[in-house]
Amino acid sequence: MASLSSWLPVVRAAAVGWTPVIHRSLPVLTCHHSSRVIDKRVTLNVSGRRFQISRRLLDARPDTLLGSDEKEFFYDSERSEYMFDRDPRLFRLILVYYQTGRLHYSPRHACVAAFDSELQFFGISSDAVADCCYADYEDRRQHVMDRLATDDQLTSDPQADDMPLRERMWRGFRCPRSSTLATVFYYVTGCFIAVSVVANIAETIPCSDARSQSCGEQFDTELFCVDTACVLLFTVEYALRLYASPARCHYALSAMSLIDIASILPYYVALCFADSQHVGGAFVTLRVFRVFRVFKFSRHCHGLRALGYTLRTCVSELAFLLFSLSVAVIVFGTVEFYVEKDVTGTAFTSIPRSLWYTVVTMTTLG
Asked: I want to staple 46 with a disulfide (CB 3.0 to 4.6 A). Which of 88, 308, 318, 330 is the partner?
C-alpha cells in the first residue's frame, strides 16, 4: 500500500495531462482596475522631488491650494504631474497635513518665516499646527517678529491711533519703537537696570584701608536712595505691564514676571522689618535675589533672548550632557575613594569628597 500511495501523484499528473482543461483560449487580462487606481494618485513635483498622494486626501481640503482647482495652473501635461518651485523639505510637513490633518513644526530644522511662507502659499492656516508643536511655533514666530520690527513697520500702522489704551501700552512694551514715549521708557528702564546692578556690586567693595568697612556701610544713605529710585521705577513698570497685559494671569505666572517680583521684593521686605532683629539671616538671603535684576536685561537685548530660546530648545541635549557628566563623576569619584582611603592623611575621607574633587577636575582640567 505504501508503494501504491507513492505512485498516486504521478498518476494524477498524467491524467491531468491527458484531459483537456479548457476548450477556449484564456481571456485577455485588462488593466482597467489598475489604471483606475493610478488615476487616484496625484504626482507632485516640488523642485525636482516627486511626491505622490491620494486625490481623495487633497479633495478633502478644498479651502487649500492643492485641494482646489487652482492647482491646475501648476499642471504639467507632458509629465502628468503638478510642478511647484518650493522648498521640498518643508513640503514634507505640508504633505503630512493632508495625510493627518495636523501640522508639525520643528524649530531646529525649519525657519519659522519660511514655514509661514509655505503655509501662505498653500493656503493653510496656522491654526492647524498641532498642540505638541504650537508653543514652540508661537514662541519662535514672536521672537522673529520682535527682531524684524522696524520703525517704518511700526509707525506705518494706520490703526495704531484707534487702539484702546491698554493695547497701545502693551504694544509699546512689546515693540518699544512704536512710539516716542515707549522708546524713552525703554531706554530709561534700561539705564536704571544698569545702575541697580552696579550699585548692588559697588556696595560690597571695601572703602577703608583696613577693609573692615564696605561702601555699602559707609555710603548707606546714598545707596539706599539709589536703590529706592530703581525699585520705584521697577514697581511702576511691573504694574503697568500687568495692567496692559491681555492675559494678566498668564503674565503674572510667566518667567519674566517672577523675575520682576524677585528683583523688587527684598526692598519691601526690608522696609517692613527694618527694626526687627529676628529676620537678619532671612533678610540677607532675600538680598541675594536682587541679582535677578540682571535678567531684566533680556527685555533690552535680543541676543540674550536668542540665547534663552536656544537653551530652551536644547534642554534635552543639555540634560543628556549633564547625565553623562554625572555618571563619569560617580564612577571616578568612587574609584578615587577606595584607592586612597587607606592612605595616611588622605583628603578623600568619603565618596562625596571624592565626587567634589572629580567635578572640579573634569570641569577645569578636562
From this structure: 88
